[in-house]
Amino acid sequence: MHVARLSLTDFRNYRSAELSFERGATVIVGRNGQGKTNLVEAIGYLATLGSHRVSSDQALIRSGADAAIIRALLSAEGREVLLELQLNRQGANRAQVNRGAAKPRDLPRYAHTVLFAPEDLAIVRGEPSVRRRMLDGLLVQRIPRLAGVMADYDRVLKQRNSLLKSARARGLAASQLTTLDIWDERLVELGAELVDRRAELVAELREPLAAAYRSIVDDDHRPELQSVLSIDGADPDDEPTDAASATGGDVSDPETSGRAPTTERFASALRSLRRRELERGVTLAGPHRDDVRLLLNDLPAKGYASHGESWSFALALRLASAELLRRDSTTGDPVLLLDDVFAELDRMRRERLAAAVGDFEQVLITAAVLEDVPEPLAGRVIRIAAGAVVDELAPLRDAESSEAHMPSEASGV
């Protein structure tokens, strides 16, 4: 699969933009703040229904506009599909597939992407929410209906938290909250599926992760993934600090024998935590509080990995994700989006990453400096300035001259 055309209206700092792409590698070049990242962000949104930079859609709508529109023409095996998404400041977002009405959650069925970005370092060094978002984004692409399950879980979670906060404010005891049982049942039904699907994904990622890490580093540091589940009593905020505590086994391995079903364990956890939840006014167990622990050489990567090792782990996770999507797909490779990644890497990792992604059907790269991009990936160049396409395949000095005459947008990113 590849993106043949991209059209934006009032998205980020683009009042209007039309771009054509080809198979192979394309580099989008421009100074910082001109809108390079906004282009790959728009493509990535169609595949994951989320941004890799912000959690709210409001930031994606150009200042002063009521809505933003993303249109992408995708081509796969001689067939084309037109995806359209309207992000609204007020009301629900709207979508179309080949001009026919659709739900936004339908779009990941057609668009498959993997996005590499400087923010990926937080996958290794950041909070559990970053790793949950990484897993969920991949899950939605592999099993699009899970977008609906996640949305429903979030709604139930908000309702349950609202009830807990109200009960705390009114000083109600657990025995007085009979309606909480109804929300518990729905939370367990939705949440158990997310827990199980994440566990399956973690297991499937292990082999391609190890292969991808070796391709980047040319060494075996034994990268490993371990799920950390709040329904089994784990607290993602309690980071292991030594090898002994880091190698206690994967608490969510689906092959673990003798474990009760996830629904039973989840329901039991909610019952045992009821008193604490009433005291704090928040739900303390569920997929919204889980984590995945990253290990190198049996040690927690978050505490022990060097900067280079952390980057290699993050890149390997993205490459492993791309490999899983490639295995699943009936329409070809996912589109790889490399957002200013090469500027963060040393020469060796640049060359190894370029070699690892070179055989994918389409790779879209953003860079502030073209020289940061390895030569095998720098065949076609598009230059961006102030939310507009300046030129294609133009000498850098010409693009810079054009930038000097472009008006800047207050909302430029």
Structural write-up:
GO terms for molecular function: ATP binding; single-stranded DNA binding. The RecF protein is involved in DNA metabolism; it is required for DNA replication and normal SOS inducibility. RecF binds preferentially to single-stranded, linear DNA. It also seems to bind ATP. This protein is α/β, with parallel strands linked by helices and 413 residues long. It is built from eleven helices and 15 strands. Strand 5 and strand 6 form a beta hairpin. The chain has a domain of 197 residues: P-loop containing nucleotide triphosphate hydrolases (Rossmann fold, 3-Layer(aba) Sandwich). Helix 5 packs across helix 7 and helix 5 packs across helix 9.
Helix-strand blueprint:
Layout (H helix, E strand, L loop, with lengths): L1 E10 L2 E7 L3 E6 L6 H13 L18 E10 L2 E10 L5 E4 L2 E3 L10 E4 L4 H5 L2 H15 L3 H25 L8 H39 L6 E5 L14 H4 L15 H19 L10 E6 L2 E2 H4 L2 H22 L6 E5 L7 H11 L4 E6 L12 E6 L2 E5 L3 H8 L10
Parallel strand pairs: 3-13, 3-14, 8-12, 12-13
Antiparallel strand pairs: 1-2, 1-4, 4-5, 5-6, 6-7, 9-10, 10-11, 14-15
Helix pairs in contact: 4-5, 4-7, 5-7, 5-9, 5-10
GO molecular function: ATP binding; single-stranded DNA binding
Protein name: DNA replication and repair protein RecF
Pfam families: SMC_N
